[in-house]
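In the design runs reported in the main text, the only information available to the sequence generator was the tokenized backbone. The following block is the verbatim input for one such run; it is reproduced so that readers can re-run the procedure and compare outputs position by position.
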């Protein structure tokens, strides 16, 4: 009888495999980082071959740490960095270009050209998304336009596209599929039909044949090694041995996976994930409510034959990545966890604000012309103030998204469930509660992204019975309550809003 479900969590900076038991508890984890490639300012790439190699390593590592074999694993779920775009040869599995990462801004010319007719919200009614460099569709167009012979080969049916979920599942099983949550981040899927939109494909010049089949978030897409075609099997697939024939049955974009892992199954429930970027999602139920405040209307999840559940999302480009910048580019800290220690050497931000618009601003502004700025600098400011301003930037950006979310939904949140790597930073979590004026709650299992993918996979094969069983596993680990007075809160937030305006119109 299988004891575990495996989740492959393919993120922006690393790939992990986590094994969960029936109680939703972590049994084993293995993680490997991959290179960040910056060919030009504003360009961000990954090597898909390296990511597939890391995927194989972490699966083997997790199985080894758990001292289990293939008979112990009921299913595999996949969750992934969304919008990161790969185009590869159908016959060999060789990418025609590096993966273009969600943070990449090279498609701003394409987006601006498209916006000349109908503006930035030209496709929002059908896709829930603005025209922005963030999404996969313009990235596919860039590859087809700029890689020699790519367009002709795509039209001949020789090339395949996928976000990272599709790339991983194709390498595992040979099935060329994605789920509704990842498809909803391409700017190519119609929110009503849950299918590729023919008019948008024509507008961007993207052949439908290169796109994956859109499936639910919880169903058996294929089995490891079992469905690979003769042509696909030319590409080496050494992972098949340790997990041969295990069903791959869960697929969710990372933020939707966290919503699912936090068991936000009812309309009005919300979560915020603190990772490389920051992403707040609010369950809206079975109707796609349009946003008038710069948020995204997206898919929350779709379980098997059940109706799709929609969500409002606020996406922030740079949060945890700002801590990495402080470590790697500035050398002010040796490891990411040191930022809290450094920030605690001062009592406040010293009057400075750090707006990390390195790749422009996402929700609620959607300004690709913005660039990062530190404002309010005086001789008094030291590295402790900068570290504190780095952490506070995450909390301020989250407040902006929450304000927009409440305006769109008419729902006032009473608490915020949080997850991701930064939720163990006590200073940040307390400041987050203070600036939001609502309690911030961390669950016992903070790895809710991987847990959500595991839940989706396990539901598809009967490892877990239903939502009620999943809810029973959720438990509170820590809660931070607001301690800041209202006058201080609004003064600090007003300063942040002023600082944000200083980043506008830098690229023109």
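Verbatim output:
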């Amino acid at each position: 009888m299988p004891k575990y479900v495996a989740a492959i969590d393919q993120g922006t900076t690393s790939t992990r495999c986590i094994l969960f038991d029936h109680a939703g508890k972590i049994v084993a984890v293995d993680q490997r980082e991959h290179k960040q490639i910056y060919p030009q300012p504003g360009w961000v790439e990954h090597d898909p071959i390296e990511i597939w190699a890391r995927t194989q390593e972490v699966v083997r590592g997790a199985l080894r740490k758990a001292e289990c074999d293939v008979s112990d694993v009921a299913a595999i779920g996949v969750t992934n960095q969304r919008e990161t775009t790969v185009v590869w040869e159908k016959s060999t599995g060789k990418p025609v270009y590096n993966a273009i990462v969600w943070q990449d801004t090279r498609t701003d010319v394409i987006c601006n050209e498209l916006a000349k007719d109908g503006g930035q919200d030209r496709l929002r009614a059908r896709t829930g998304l603005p025209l922005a460099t963030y999404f996969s569709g313009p990235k596919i167009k860039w590859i087809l336009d700029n890689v020699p012979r790519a367009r002709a080969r795509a039209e001949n049916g020789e090339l395949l596209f996928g976000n990272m979920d599709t790339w991983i599942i194709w390498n595992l099983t040979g099935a060329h599929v994605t789920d509704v949550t990842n498809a909803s981040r391409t700017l190519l899927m119609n929110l009503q039909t849950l299918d590729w939109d023919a008019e948008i494909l024509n507008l961007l010049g993207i052949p439908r044949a290169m796109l994956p089949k859109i499936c639910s978030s919880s169903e058996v897409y294929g089995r490891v090694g079992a469905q690979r075609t003769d042509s696909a099997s030319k590409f080496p697939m050494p992972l098949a041995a340790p997990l041969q024939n295990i069903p791959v049955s869960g697929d969710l974009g990372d933020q939707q996976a966290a919503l699912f892992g936090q068991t936000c199954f009812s309309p009005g429930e919300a979560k915020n994930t603190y990772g490389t970027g920051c992403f707040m999602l609010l369950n809206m139920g079975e109707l796609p409510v349009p946003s008038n405040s710069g948020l995204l209307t997206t898919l929350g999840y779709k379980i098997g034959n059940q109706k799709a559940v929609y969500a409002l999302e606020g996406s922030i480009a740079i949060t945890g990545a700002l801590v990495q910048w402080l470590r790697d580019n500035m050398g002010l800290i040796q490891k990411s966890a040191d930022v809290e220690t450094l920030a605690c050497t001062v009592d406040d931000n010293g009057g400075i604000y750090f707006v990390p618009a390195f790749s422009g601003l996402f929700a609620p502004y959607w300004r690709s012309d913005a660039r990062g700025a530190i404002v309010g600098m005086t001789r008094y400011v030291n590295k402790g103030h900068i570290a504190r301003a780095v952490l506070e930037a995450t909390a301020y950006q989250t407040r902006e998204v929450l304000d927009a979310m409440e305006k769109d939904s008419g729902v006032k949140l009473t608490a915020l469930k949080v997850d991701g790597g930064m939720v163990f930073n006590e200073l940040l979590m307390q400041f987050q509660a203070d600036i939001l004026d609502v309690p911030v709650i961390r669950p016992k299992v903070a790895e809710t992204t991987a847990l959500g993918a595991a839940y989706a996979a396990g539901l598809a094969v009967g490892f877990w019975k239903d939502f009620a069983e999943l809810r029973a596993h959720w438990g509170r680990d820590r809660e931070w309550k607001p301690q800041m007075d209202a006058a201080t809160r609004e003064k600090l937030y007003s300063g942040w809003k002023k600082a944000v305006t200083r980043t506008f119109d830098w690229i023109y």
